[in-house]
Amino acid sequence: MKRALLLLATMLATPAAAQTVAITGGTVAIGDGSAPIEGGTVVIANGRIVAAGRGVAVPAGAQVIDAAGKWVSAGVVSALTDLSLVDADGVQESNDAGARNSPFKAAIDVSLAVNPAAVKIANERLFGVTRAIVTPSAESSIFAGQGAIIDLGADPDAVTRPRAFQFVELGEGGGKLAGGSRPAAYALLRDAFAQAQDFRRNPAAFDGRSRDALVTRADAEALLRVLDGQVPLLAHVERAADIRNVLALPREYPKLRLVLVGVTEGWLVAREIAAAKVPVIAAALADLPAQFENLAATESNVGRLRAAGVPVALASTGASGGDHVLRQFAGNLVAIARIPGATGLDWGQAFASITSGPAEAIGMGGEIGSLRAGRRADVVIWDGDPLELSSVPVATWIDGVSQPMRSRQTELRDRYLAPTEGALPKAYERR
Amino acid sequence: MNSIRTRRVLLSAALLALPLSACATAKDKPATTAKKAPPVRYARNPYPSTYHGYPGTPTLVRNVTVFDGEGGRIDGGAVLFADGKVVAVGQTLDAPAGATVIDGQGKYVTPGVVDIHSHLGDYPTPSVQAHSDGNEATAPITADVWAEHSVWPQDPGFGRALANGGVTTLQILPGSANLMGGRSVVLKNVYARTMQAMKFPGAPYGLKMACGENPKRVYGSKNREPSTRMGNVAVDRQTWAKAVAYKRKWDKYEAEGGDAPDRDIGMDTLRGVLSGEIMVQNHCYRADEMAIVLDMAKEFGYHVTAFHHAVEAYKIADLLKSSGTCAAVWADWYGFKMESYDGIGENLAILENAGACAMIHSDDENGIQRLNQEVAKVLSSARHSGIQISDAAAWKWLSLAPAKALGIDAQTGSLKPGKMADVVLWNGNPFSVYTRPEKVWVDGALLYDANDPKRRPVSDFELGQPGSGDVK
Q1: Which CATH superfamily is domain A76-368 in?
Q2: Origin, by domain of life (chain A) (predicted)?
Q3: For position A104, what pLDDT does the model report?
Q4: Whole-angstrom Cα distance, residue B326 to residue B340?
Q5: What percent of chain A is predicted at pLDDT more than 90?
Q6: B379 CB near a chain A CB, below 8 Å?
Q7: I need a labelling partner for A18 at 20 to 30 A (CA). Which of A53, A345, A424, B242 fits?
Q8: Would the CB atoms of A322 and B334 count as touching at under 8 Å?
Q9: CB < 8 Å to A389, chain B
Q10: Do A392 and B465 touch (CB under 8 A)?
Q11: Which of A268, A288, A335 is closest, CB to CB, to B156?
Q12: Which of A240, A287, A291 sits opposite B126 (nearest CB)?
């Protein structure tokens, strides 16, 4: 019923999610690392992918969409973004990414701040982003809180999975947040984990509510989910030595499900990361010694990690051009594969780094991030290669629901394509 | 654009002028009395460029697609340069004896990229507090500071901009905390031991100004003027009024002699703006604020060369065109602060379509490595909105338009015979995401070669660090 209302509201002449849709004749990019498939078919029904590839039969009664000359791909998954938490980053009133003055740290649950109507959601959807790994920012502790997985659909039901992971700062930034040094960050981490275990052993005896409690009861509960491996722990580190320290944590906390974030010096310890089977969400093209923890930064980092067997996804953090810059990042990783001495990715790997890669890193590869059978039907038809700068989406489905192709940005564009005013002020010009 | 050219000519005249040359204008004035001491001009160029081009061999790149930077395109064409200068561009060219000949099948040649808005050197990496040298955020008017006195020539970012971005010239600006942030400096993107040895010979200075949220936030939070947009304009106007008086005094003195007025280093810069020697590079996001600044410039008799960032320039493309003021913009940045909320990817395309002067800029140590791709995104937005702009025309946004807005278009910015041989050979169409620079020449010297690790700069800071000399 909700979907039916939505369809009326957006005046789409498309079928409900339940209807079977077959997109035929396009170049299909599944998003699982495989090469694009020319002349493929993608079938979606009941909000899920039924099949994608070459030789896929069109089911009887399906709505057939001809995508000849176009590309059909999995939607982009934006990893480590404040999308939906923020209207404009610098406008503090609009910004729910961090909570500098809160007594709560690990307990913070960003899913409660997700605003499905944020204008950036439609803006970014129009460039092919269909899901996001929404991440709190650490402002009062090394623990930023619990992130959420959302979809970018034009409906009020945005949260795919709340409290999907915990985020912790353990590099230079972690040191600062902990009071001034990396060892202080580790002392804080170990003490917080110890207190969470105290809380489990004897909740009644646990302080957690006094003014000077270091860990609140809510924080302890959130940390137990990390210690029990119920949710992954995303740890932000850049320096090789910091990466090694994080990789050592499971010796003390064996159920930790680690994901490394940032990791500009990862290539120096690529084999150790691969051996630990820890996925990485990396800053794609960070090639400058931005701080003393990034001295070995190179654009070849992601390629070298991948070549060593590390599963790598790309982060969209800090992209002032919007989350859709991810596909430009991925395209550049293909470009550098042609530079002597550099290591990049092949096309399939590059596209996976912004689709199934981030989904798998947070343990949701079975649900989102590719066109493999059974995944949620987040499908984009592009007028060309999705990694190429000249291409844009021409149609998008999220959870099998066809999405509107308008945004606040297209409204502004259309109002000002001819900047001079007409018979009435610009304020009267709208669709 | 005429006003920009005029200003460049004026500057050249000023640079050539010797201390006593002011008597050339004295004939229009009443005869000076014998009692007055002759005027003494203060130095206009006390930190002169010591840049020199490095040796190169005469080079013919042929069988390539050429974007000449002025809107021209030659498929299967050729570019010849020697002795640091472009010699010829054409369909087929003969190689002089001893020339290096490069077959560019499938590749593209363009002028080097010119970035009009960079903080490399004054906000270098690593971005530690000790390197925060771009904003003299201690007073809203600091026209007295010069960015060149902050530039650290060992910034690793220069090398990345060269190797990944094909950037051969860049303007280093003070930041935008202040209404008048100080003078900019134009650099050749060639590592040197000193700032002076990177300085673009003969380039005019710029004055960095800023409107909007930054100055009012920075000073409002210190509980002092300006704390509002109206405060921004008030402080600007008060300062311009003083500058007009300062200029009057000094013009009179330099014409007639007598007792020299007191020097004020900041006022020297504003006088330079009012006399057309120094170009105004004005950080401004919102359309309505740009319109106010244009009126303020008229009120005090100066010209705004370019609005930088100009996220809403598309709303007043006609006004910018009629004012002869350029917009230097990002491709698609938006939504990171209130005044960037209305950013759209078609900004540059709408400006071009309206006939306004426009260009791309980076303001970012990462973005400067991919300005060609930023233009490619603009082209995509344009074409999907029904605005047709050719690839060759779009290259103007990357070289000639910024060169003009820096007053150096007679020397660089396009592949015209006699100009500096600032040239990039790309390994494919530079508007494809899959393309990177293969070779970059600055003044005819090969300073980056993807195939030769010895032609890859390593700044002092990175020498001996993890990954030193690696591809970056």
Answers
A1: Metal-dependent hydrolases (3.20.20.140)
A2: Bacteria
A3: 95
A4: 18
A5: 91
A6: yes
A7: A53
A8: yes
A9: 373, 376-377, 379-380, 431-433
A10: no
A11: A288
A12: A291
Of B317, B340, B431, the CB nearest to A419: B317
Residues of B whose CB is below 8 A from A288? 125, 156-157, 160, 365-366
pLDDT in tens, A244-268: 999 999 999 999 999 999 999 999 9
Q: What domains can you pick out in chain B, each with its CATH number?
A: 2-57+113-414 (3.20.20.140)
CB pairs under 8 A between A and B: 166
DSSP string covering B266-316, please?
Answer: HHHHHHHHHTTSSEEEEEE--HHHHHHHHHHHHHHT--EEEEEE-TTGGGG
CB-nearest partner of A419 from B318, B336, B467 = B318
CATH fold match for the domains A1-75+370-431 and A76-368: no
CA atoms of B113 and B424, how far apart (whole Å): 8
Q: Which residues of B are less than 8 Å from A294 in CB distance? A: 126
The encoded tokens of residue A315 equal: 């982060």
Question: Which amino acid, one-letter code, is at A275?
Answer: A
- Alpha-carbon separation of residue A390 from A13, A381, B24 (angstroms): 28, 14, 57
Question: Domains of chain A: which residue ranges?
Answer: 1-75+370-431, 76-368
Could you list the mean pLDDT of each consecutive 10-residue stretch along chain B, which spans 472 residues? 34 36 42 76 97 98 98 98 98 96 98 98 98 98 98 98 98 98 98 98 98 98 98 98 98 97 98 98 98 98 98 98 98 96 98 98 97 98 97 98 98 98 98 98 98 97 95 91
Taking alpha carbons only, the member of A161, A149, A29, A84 closest to residue A323 is: A84
* Chain B residues 69-98 within an 8 A CB cutoff of chain A: none
Residue A364 forms beta bridges with which residues?
none
Q: What is the CATH number of domain A1-75+370-431?
A: 2.30.40.10
Q: Around Cβ A330, how many Cβ atoms within 10 Å? A: 28
Quick: pLDDT tens for A43-80. 999 999 999 999 999 999 999 999 999 999 999 999 99
Q: Contact A77/A354 with Cβ under 8 angstroms? A: yes
> What's the farthest any 2 CA atoms get from each other in chain A?
74
Q: Rounded to an integer, what distance in angstroms lies between the CA atom of residue A322 and that of residue B374?
A: 13
With an 8 Å Cβ cutoff, are A338 and B436 in contact? yes
Cβ contacts (< 8 Å) between B314 and chain A: which residues? 416, 419
Residue B460 touches partner A, C-beta closer than 8 Å: no
Q: Measure the CA–CA gap between B154 and B460, rounded to whole angstroms.
A: 6
Q: What angle do CA A357, A70, A29 make, to 5 degrees?
A: 20
B318 touches chain A (CB under 8 A): yes
| B365: chain A residues, CB-CB within 8 Å | 288
Query: Using the beta-carbon criterion (under 8 Å), do B160 and A288 form an inter-chain contact?
Result: yes
Q: Do B383 and A390 touch (CB under 8 A)?
A: yes
| Six token digits for residue B458 | 């390593």
Residues A125, A131: Cα–Cα separation, whole Å: 9
Is B338 in CB contact (< 8 Å) with chain A? Answer: yes
A387: chain B residues, CB-CB within 8 Å: 433
Distance CA B395, CA B405 (A): 15
Q: Which residue of B has its CA nearest to A284?
A: B366
Tens-digit pLDDT profile for residues A83-96: 999 999 999 999 99
d(CA B335, CA B129): 27
Question: Phi then psi for B336, rounded to 5 degrees?
Answer: -95, -10
Q: What is the ipTM of this complex?
A: 0.94
Tokens encoding A82 = 């404040």
What's the whole-model pTM score? Answer: 0.94
Distance between B303 CA and the closest CA of chain A, angstroms: 23
